[in-house]
């Protein structure tokens, strides 16, 4: 038979538990198998499909239309739900199929097979590619389950479940539990400071982070981000439990002992499934050789893991030597130590230390990168005026890239300046793309890029980025909250609530958890619970003005007009030139249905490029999306509109 290649909708089916059933009750197993085949023969033909292969308990069929394949899958499950019930999984994808005398193969076949393996009995799972074809067909309702990493599938896929009578609708958590840990996944735990001086914590933390960053540059290796790894600092937890919490199969741990100009670093690579050491080594060096040690450790792990995994060993040295001045490098590590505490007070300390490093070495690129990030952070949280913070952030990022154009953090700082300060969406995206090209494991870059995609209204793409960020950094509260926010905007309310609950477990004081849950309860029609939830945000420093806007909106929607106006007056009293609250006031006026006032304040917010406007396409503003003045706002912001 000549090889035939075609673009098709591919359906895999599989009876669950058929082998065990044959051992327990052969007669019943054959009855269910025969029913399965009879129903498929009839319905696949009826919907202009063709069964290319039969297996003992499954089939592979192709269709010329994704719509016909989906309707067929729905009808198959409805028929098999009748007594005697056949526990069948169905997965559908659209892609290339190649078949000849030796069998059926192709990328499309592989993806459809992986989707079917993930399904539950009685469900029909489809890829986003198939779902796109169903948009104008009201008889086919689908529910998004989020994006998933599938074995031997290069990019994450957003999966949907067909929603109809007699069809199982799996939750995301049910499917997530079926996804195995990736062999090429690793987390680097904070190396223990074994030095006599406990003040050397900054040094051991810095060495850990540098090794983590080096590993992140190895193509094919998925590396958990710093925030999640460092959550285990000082905790005596079982290594296997840590691996499960972080979703990785390998853990690197070690220690650092620094005395004068000498340093000893030990490192061990551990398989979390059995707790055994895959590799270990000890390095005795002088401080001048510290970059060589970092490179040796990353290369040794690469050599060990690439024997069984598709990990590319870089042709050149992983670690670039950023400076020959060890005193300057020490200052950089101290600056990182304070930066990673993520509070305005500590970030301001980091700025001073980075400035000291630049005084000693004016061409030290990493210090400029740190200064850029600090300014962007302080501008975003309102400590520095945006008109001061963002231009400085841009200046320092540009200087860092002028000195070294391979620093992903500098690209992300620049992307955030373009995003918040300039509303230059194209340049922002290009910077994010460059950062992720250099370091595909950069969780913050994935998170912030998902924010940009939300701003542009590309919610499905945003979900892929937000879920990948969470996979890389599962104990990071802002990343977890961003994922919950993204679920909300896709109307995945159950998943959003579960994610906010996870965020609370990570950090009970993270204010966005409560404000997010408040909006969720309102969306679900539980307005009293929404108000009660929002009141908790009042107790969190720095979130009062945000909570005033949300709770004022909710009271307005609950017809408690005087209370809503009281919160509006409080916002007006809080407002200063350094803290303009036009966006927050517009939210309350939206609840009061005073849309003239809403657009008055929104236009002022556009004039001043206030950061809250970046989310004009999301949950807060559904009340105004049909108003022609809303389109004018989008035009002023150079945002796409339909």
Your description of this structure?
This protein has 642 residues and is of the alpha/beta class. Helices cover 53% and strands 15% of the residues. The longest helix is centred in the N-terminal third of the chain and has 21 residues, at 26-46. The chain starts with a strand and ends in a 6-residue tail after the last helix. Mean pLDDT is 84; it is low at 313-319.
Structural class call reads alpha/beta
The general outline is globular
Rounded to an integer in angstroms, the radius of gyration calculated over CA atoms is: 27 Å
CATH superfamily of the domain at 4-176: Nucleotide cyclase, GGDEF domain
| CATH class bucket of the domain at 4-176 | Alpha Beta
Annotated CATH topology of the domain at 4-176:
Alpha-Beta Plaits
Largest beta-sheet characterization: 8 strands, mixed
Helical proportion? 40-55%
Strand content is: 15-25%
Q: Measure the end-to-end span.
A: 49 Å
| Number of continuous helical runs | 27
Number of separate strands? 14
Question: For the residues shown, what is the average pLDDT?
Answer: 84
CATH architecture of the domain at 4-176: 2-Layer Sandwich
Identify low-pLDDT runs.
313-319
């Amino acid at each position: 038979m000549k090889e035939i290649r075609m673009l098709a909708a591919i359906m895999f089916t599989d009876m669950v538990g058929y082998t065990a059933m044959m051992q327990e009750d052969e007669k019943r197993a054959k009855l269910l198998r025969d029913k399965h085949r009879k129903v498929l023969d009839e319905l696949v033909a009826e919907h202009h499909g063709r069964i290319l292969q039969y297996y003992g308990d499954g089939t592979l069929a192709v269709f010329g239309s994704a719509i016909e394949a989906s309707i067929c899958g729905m009808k198959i499950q409805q028929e098999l739900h009748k007594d005697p019930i056949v526990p069948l999984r169905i997965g559908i994808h659209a892609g290339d199929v190649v078949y000849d005398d030796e069998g059926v193969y192709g990328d499309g076949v592989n993806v459809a097979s992986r989707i079917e393996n993930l399904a539950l009995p009685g469900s029909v799972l489809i890829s986003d590619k198939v779902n796109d074809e169903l948009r104008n067909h009201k008889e086919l309702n689908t529910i998004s389950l989020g994006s998933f990493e599938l074995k031997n599938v290069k990019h994450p896929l957003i999966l949907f479940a067909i929603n109809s009578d007699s069809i199982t609708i799996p939750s995301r958590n049910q499917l997530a539990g079926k996804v195995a840990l990736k062999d090429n996944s690793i987390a680097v735990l904070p190396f223990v400071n074994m030095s006599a001086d406990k003040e050397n914590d900054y040094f051991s933390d810095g060495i850990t982070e540098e090794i983590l960053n080096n590993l992140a540059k190895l193509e094919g290796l998925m590396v958990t981000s710093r925030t999640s790894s460092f959550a285990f600092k000082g905790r005596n937890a079982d290594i296997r439990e840590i691996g499960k919490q972080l979703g990785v199969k390998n853990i690197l741990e070690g220690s650092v002992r620094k005395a004068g100009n000498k340093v000893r670093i030990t490192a061990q690579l551990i398989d979390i499934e059995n707790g055994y050491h895959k590799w270990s080594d000890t390095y005795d060096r002088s401080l001048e050789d510290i970059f060589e040690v970092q490179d040796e450790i990353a290369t040794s792990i690469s050599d060990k893991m690439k024997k069984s995994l598709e990990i590319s060993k870089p042709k050149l040295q992983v670690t670039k030597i950023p400076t020959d001045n060890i005193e300057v490098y020490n200052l950089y590590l101290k600056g990182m130590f304070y930066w990673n505490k993520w509070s305005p007070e500590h970030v301001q300390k980091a700025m001073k230390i980075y400035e000291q490093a630049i005084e000693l070495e004016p061409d030290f690129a990493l210090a400029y990168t740190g200064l850029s990030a600090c300014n962007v952070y302080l501008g975003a949280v309102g400590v520095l005026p945006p008109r001061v913070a963002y231009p400085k952030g841009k200046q320092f990022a540009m200087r860092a890239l002028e000195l070294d154009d391979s620093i992903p953090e500098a690209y992300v700082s620049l992307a955030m300046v373009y995003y918040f300060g300039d509303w230059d969406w194209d340049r922002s995206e290009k910077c994010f793309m460059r950062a992720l090209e250099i370091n595909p494991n950069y969780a913050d870059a994935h998170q912030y890029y998902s924010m940009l995609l939300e701003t542009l209204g590309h919610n499905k793409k945003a979900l892929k980025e937000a879920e990948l960020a969470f996979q890389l950094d599962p104990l990071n509260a802002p990343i977890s909250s961003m994922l919950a926010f993204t679920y909300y905007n896709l109307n995945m309310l159950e998943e959003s609530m579960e994610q906010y609950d996870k965020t609370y477990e990570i950090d009970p004081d993270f204010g966005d958890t409560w404000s997010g849950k408040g909006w969720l309860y309102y969306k679900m029609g539980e307005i009293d619970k929404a108000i009660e939830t929002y009141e908790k945000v009042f107790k969190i420093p720095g979130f009062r003005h945000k909570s005033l806007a949300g709770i004022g909106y909710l009271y307005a929607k609950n017809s408690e007009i005087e209370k809503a106006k009281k919160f509006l007056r409080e916002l007006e009293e809080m407002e200063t030139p350094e803290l303009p609250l036009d966006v927050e006031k517009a939210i309350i006026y939206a609840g009061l249905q005073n849309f003239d006032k809403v657009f008055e304040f929104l236009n002022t917010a556009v004039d001043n490029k206030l950061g809250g406007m970046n989310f004009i396409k999301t949950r807060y503003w559904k009340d105004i999306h049909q108003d022609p003045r809303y389109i004018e706002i989008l035009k002023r912001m150079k945002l796409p509109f339909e």
